[in-house]
Amino acid sequence: MFKHFFNLQWKSFFRAASFKTNLAFKILMIFGALYFIVVFLALGVGSFFIIKKAGLGDPLRVVNQFMIYYLVMDLYIRYMFQKMPILNIKPLLYMPFKKSAVVKYSLGKTVFSFFNWMHAFFFIPFSIVLITQGYNALDVVAWHLAIMALFYANNFLNIMMNNQDRIFYPMVAILAILALCQYNGWFDVTLYTAPIFDAFFDTPWAFLISILLLAWLIYASFNYFKKHMYLDGGLASKHTEAKSEDYTWLNRFGNLGTFLKNDIKLIRRNKRSKTTVIMSFLFLFYGLIFFTGGIEMYEGPIWSIFAGIFISGGFLFSFGQFVPSWDSSYYPLMMSQNIQYSEYLSSKWYLIVIATVLSTVISAFYLYFGWEVYLAIVVGAIYNIGVNSYLVLWGGAYIKTPIDLTSNKKAFGDKQAFNVKTLLLTIPKLVLPLIVFAVGYYLINPVAGYIAVALSGVLGFVFKDQVFKMIEKIYKKEKYKTLLAYKQTD
Amino acid sequence: MITVHDITKTYGTQTVLNIPSLEIPKGQSFGLVGNNGAGKTTFFSLLLDLIQPTTGKIINNEVQVDISEAWKPFTSAFIDETFLIGYLTPEEYFYFIGELRGQNKADVDSLIGTFENFFHGEILGQKKYLRDLSKGNQKKVGIVASFIGSPEVIILDEPFANLDPTTQIRLKQIIRDLAENNDVTVLVSSHDLIHVTEVCERIVVLNKGEIVKDIQTSTQTLKELETFFGG
Predict the structure, then answer these.
(1) I want to staple B133 with a disulfide (CB 3.0 to 4.6 A). Which of A23, B30, B53, B137 is the partner?
(2) B35 by DSSP, 3-state: which?
C-alpha cells in the first residue's frame, strides 16, 4: 500500500509544472539551498567557538538560553510556509485503503519535510563539537535527541494548529513582547525556559519527556485527522462570510475608481495579497540595519539611498512587481471587457503611489537617526514614484506567473520572476539611483547627490503619459502570451 | 454581424480550427455543437481575441477583432470561470461589470431583478464570495453578467453544463427571449443536442476543427444531429 502512496508522491513531484523550470533557475535554487546548508553547517561547527571566544559563557547554556526563540521562530516559519499534508488526499478517500493508512501516510510525509531536517545541519555538527570538546557524550546525545524531538513536535503542532489564526497570532505577539522585554532588560523569559533545555543535558532521563511529548503529539494529530477526514470536516476549505462593500467615495474617479475599488477588495480579501501587505510593512524596518550601523558594509553614504528606496518602496516592490498577475485568475474577463489598458494600469499606479507616500509618512520615525536619514528616505520615495513605479509595471508585463490568490505558496519568490528582462530592469530600479547619487555626492556635495536623485524622480513624473503609452503597448504585445501563461496553473 | 474569413488556428503541426468562411447575420441565435476537441472554445476565444488566429480574420460588426478593440463595447461573453472574479460577491461582480459597461447601480439592479426567478434564491444576498459558490451557481452569475449593458453580441460557451434541470429550462426561455429580439446575436455552444435545437435558429456542427454541417433548425434537425453523432 505504501508503494502506491510513494509512487503517487514521486509522480506529483516530478510531474509538477514547477519542476520543469529552466536550467538556470534550477542551478540558482541548488546554490541557494547549498548556501543555507553551508551557513547552518558553519554555524553548527563554529558557534561553539564563537560563543566561547566572545566570553558569553558555556556555549551549550547560551544556545539553550535562546532555544525558546529558535523554537518559536521555527513554528512561525512553518506556519507561514509549510504546506498542510492533507490537501491532496481527497481522491484517496473512497479508495480501498484503511483510513488510518491514509492518515499515517499523510502525516508520515511531513517527517521528511525540509523544515524538519534543515535543523540537523546545525545541531549535528554542534553536538559533535560538544563531544570533541569534552562534554559527556551520552548527555550530549540525550540533549540532541530531546531538541530534535522538540522540532519534530513543532511539525505536528503546526499541523494541529492548521491555520488557526486566532491561536497563532496571539502567540507570536506574546513572543514579540517577551523579546522586547528581554532586550530592554525588564523581564527575561529565558531565565525560566533555559533550565528546561539545560535539564535535557543535566538530568539523564529528562530527554524522555521531550520524546514522550512528541509521541503524544503524533498520537493526537493522528486521531485528530482520522476524526476529521470528511469532506465537510477537516478537508473542507474555510469559507469566510462575505460582506458587500461599496466604497462609493471612489465613484468620483470614474472608471479609475471602478478599478481602485476592485483592487482594494483584491488586497483585503485574499490571503496572498494580505501577506504582501504585511511584507511591505516589514520593509519599513529594513533601514534599521543600515542606520543603526548593524552591518559595516552598509555604512557608505550611497547605501542610505539604497535603504531609502527600499523603506518607501516595500509595497511597490512586493505588489507592483506582480501586476498584472494579481488579476491572472480572471484575465480573460479583463481582456474581453470594455477596458482601457491605461485606466487599468493607472489604478495600479495610484495604489503604488498612495502606498509609497504612506510608507514615507510612517517612516518619519527615522528622524530619530537624524534628518539626513529621513531625507534619504524622502528622496528614495520621490525616485520610487517618478521612476520605479513605471519600471515595476513594465517588468510585470514579462512576469507571466499566475497567482493563486488564496494561498501563500510562492509568496516569497518565484522562478519566473527571474528572467533576463526583469533582471535587467532591476538596474534602473536600484543601481541607477545609486550612481546618480554618487555622481552628485562625490563631484559636488552631499546635498547635490540628494537633489540629483530627486530630480530624476521628478523628471520621470513629468513624462508619465508618454511612459504609460509605452507600457500600454508592451502589455498589448504580450497579451496572448500572458493569457496562455495564466491558463497553466499548477 | 459576424463574418469569418479563412480563419485557421494551428498549434505546431496540428490544425485545431479551419473555417474558410462563415457568416452570422445580426439577430440570429447561433448554435455550435461538436465533440470534445472539435474547436468550439477555440472559435469563441478567437472571436474574443483571447488567442491569435494563425491565418485569416474575424469581423465583428465591421471591426476586425484582432486589430481594433472597438468590438468590446457591444460584445459580451461567458466562457468559463476565468470570467468571474472570485473574491467579489455576486452583487459586487454585477456592479463591476455594469460600471465597465457604462451602467449605474440602478440600471444593474433593475436588470438583475428580472432574473430573480433564474437565480432561484441562491445568488443574491447570500453573503458568499463567488469563489465559494457551487459551479452551477457560479455559472448563473456569469451568464447573467453577460447580459449587462445591452450587448449586441452574446457569446456563451456551454451555458447548460452544470446547471440544474429547473435552471436549464429557465435558461432556454431566456435565450429564446433574446433570440426574438432582432438586435441581439446569441452564440451558444453545447454538448446537449436537445437544448441547442430548442433554442437556436441555426446550428453549425464542428468536427476536428472543420464545419461539417450548417443547418437551419427544423423539426428534423434533432434527428439529423443524432444520426450524425450516433453514426
Answers:
(1) B137
(2) coil
Q: What's the total number of domains in chain B?
A: 1
Nearest to A479 by CA among A332, A339, A342, A319: A332
Predicted confidence band of residue B231 (pLDDT cuts 50, 70, 90): confident
CB neighbour class for A147 (10 Å; exposed up to 12, middle 13-18, buried from 19): buried
Which of A239, A330, A335 is nearest residue B50 as measured by Cβ atoms?
A: A335
Q: Grid coordinates standing for B125?
A: 444576498
Range of the domain at B51: 2-230
Nearest to A327 by CA among A279, A273, A281, A274: A273
Q: Any idea what DSSP says for residue A241?
A: P
Residue of B nearest to A487 (CA): B82
Distance from the Cα of B140 to chain A's closest Cα (Å) equals 16
Q: What pTM value is reported for the model? A: 0.75
Q: How distant is the alpha carbon of residue A230 from its chain centre?
A: 31
Subunit contact B87:A244, Cβ cutoff 8 A: no
Contacts of B49 in chain A (CB under 8 A): 335-336
Q: For chain A, which residues make up each domain, given as ranges?
A: 2-227, 249-487
DSSP state of B63: E
Q: What is the DSSP string of A301-350?
A: THHHHHHHHHHHTHHHHHTGGGTTGGGGGGHHHHHHSS--HHHHHHHHHH
